[in-house]
User: Fold this.
Amino acid sequence: MSDFRIAQREHESVHVLELRGYLDAHTAPKLEEALQGLLNNERYNIIVNCKDLSYISSAGLGVFMAFIEDVRKHKGDIKLTNMTPKVYNVFDLLGFPLLYDILKDEHEAVRRFKEATPR
Amino acid sequence: MKLRRLFSLGGAFLVILLKFAVDVIAKNVEFDWGRLAILRELVLAGAFALLYFLLLPIFGKTEQSPVRKLGFLLILTTVILLLVVGASSISLGGYDAKLLTLIPLDYSTLFVGSFTSLLIGVFALVLFGVLVTLLRYGRRKGTQRNAIVLIGLILACSISAITLRPLDTSVVTTVIFSLAILMAVVNSFRLPWIIDLAKREKIFGLAYTFFLFLLLTGFTVLISQNVTISRSLLFYSVPLKYFVQSSSIFGAIYAGMAFVSTLFHLPTAEAFERKRTEVTSLHNLSRLVTQVFDFNELVDTVTTMTLDVCEAESCWLEIVGPPPEATRLDGGEEQVGYVVQVAAKKNITQVEIDRLVPSHTRSIRDEVLENQKPMVIDDLRSDARFRHLPKSGRGEGSLVVVPLLSHGTPLGLLYATKDIEYGFVKDDVDVISAFADQATVAIENSRLIKKSIERERLLREMMLAQEMQRKLLPQTVPVGPSVDVAASSTPAFEVGGDYYDFVQLDDDRFGVVVGDVSGKGVSAAFYMAEVKGIFLALAQLFDSPREFLTKANEALAGSIDKHSFVSLIYAILNTRTGRLTVARAGHCPMLLLARDGVRYIRPDGLGLGLTEGRLFGDVLQEHAIQLSDGDLCVLYTDGVTEARSDGEEYGYERLVEVAERKKHLSASMIKDEILKDVRAFVGGEEAHHDDLTLVVVKWHNSPRRDIDE
Assistant:
């Protein structure tokens, strides 16, 4: 039931969290911890890959809301990619696509990050 | 009782006086007593027996320590010996031996002889009584038999001498006497009380038995070898002489054996005493553990007992806080050590503890907690782990640290120190470990109790929240000639986050709202209460769902937690015209089963509390529908569409199917059918893990004519 895992990796100066399984009220603290860890390390360019995320509850959505303000204050962003239609529908119902970058894949997300910080 | 004693004493005294008078007369009158002598002895024996039972309550108390009894005997023997020797040293005429009988030569001899004999007799009586009492300590079946045999033999020896003349001897008496001595030896091996003695008592016992042995031996020699005393006794009463003799020999043997035995037990006295203290302390402690729930009192007792039993210089107990937090993902942080708190300390200050086991650096504490084994530092001064200690100071000898473990989880540590090096032996470590175990049980108990109290409290809070939530939901549904409304909400757990409500706007229009607060439990119930407040306050003020939701977002965004949000769908229905306007704030779309087709109404809109800015209002759309006869609107929460069975969701299609199938029924029945279908899908009511909320609105142009099954 509460089978949820996070894999982390670096991808061209962007930090990627790969979510797998069920993200609900029980597993949300794991994601919270991971995001907090990135913020503590001053990593604000974050991609959350939802390829293997099979379910997200309102508590799961709440985690992103808790961190987005902080991340954007530091000129970073949390971009969500590779959502299944079912998961996308949950985000979409609440209007998340209006507030978050929800993208097709990581390449696109990386490109967006590069556009945002022209150097 | 007292009177009877007085009479007995008087009687015995009278008999003794009578015998004395008879002796005086017998001195003057030549008279062969013959068989009457037996009578004289019997009367005298009776007097002594009377005295024995009179004196028994004084020296026969078994609750008195054997050592004290021996001390009493020692004093008594000394006094008697001095008196007897003093009396016999008075130069007297002595006795004339004639035909195996003795005749005192003068009155003073008779007086002094009678006095000393009586004194010796009473002394022997007391000696005999005390010895018999001593034999009763820790008796067993065999030993009791031995004691009875000995007493029997001593008495038999005396009785057999009843017919003897003072200078006569008899084989029977000699044999019985020898047997009595033999039994006295056998009985003297019976010294179980010595083991139980404390070390101090043993030393006293040693001195007492030694002197008692010497004095009683001297006394025995005196009454058998000294002519004056021996003859006085024989003249006074032959059986008494044998009784005195056997009793004093028995006493001497017993004292001698007790001395030797105590001597052998002396080296083990300390160890024995310690074991006894350990057992008593552990027993007390375990009783305390089950009876006392006051944690502070318990740890205080544990440290006090450790101090006492091990004779340690100082002792303290630390409680380990929650396990150190896992190092963060960055990994660069310094590893956090165990957080400990001193729960009880004896003979040591916090400063001294910090000096011995500093909390900021790695110390023996971490080592013990990691190894989960007791550790002994025999010499703190030479140990590398204690190099930080100044060279001179208190408490730098040896140290024992024992972890308090509960299923491998460290709960705390118990420390004990001694001023001297190599102060702790294996036994000490064992007993400190035993104390630590008891302390663990106590700590565990107190934590469990605290936890269960906390649980109880939470449960009550939950019940309260549940009760509150139930009251927040409307008890009635709007009614009208052309509208049929049914609603229900079932929380999955104690408290859910679902909400629905109705509001009558004016004569023609009413509003219906369905919502879902993110999260569960008490916080969800609070937000739900807040949403209801906002709904009641604002819905009346705004004619359009869009306006209401915009204002509701403004009201809620300021107060809601940043990772919480509320999804709402709000519809206003004009019951006269059948016009329905609906706006959606992040909520599940409304299912509309209209004459011209089935569809989900999903106007754009963000969830409440997601954003404070203008974006919310900019995005929000409002949708207007004209209902026609028989049209059906279903508002619901995600508990319906996201109901799961083997990873599959109930979904939108199933909802459409069941609603279409039951469209002809009343709103209430359609609602029940949908709920039934959802529950059947997940496989029973218990299997469902989310709140289920459903509001069904059915429209009739003309008075109702749907079929009721």
Remarks:
- The radius of gyration of chain B is 51 Å.
- Chain B has three domains: 58-264, 292-325+336-451, 474-699.
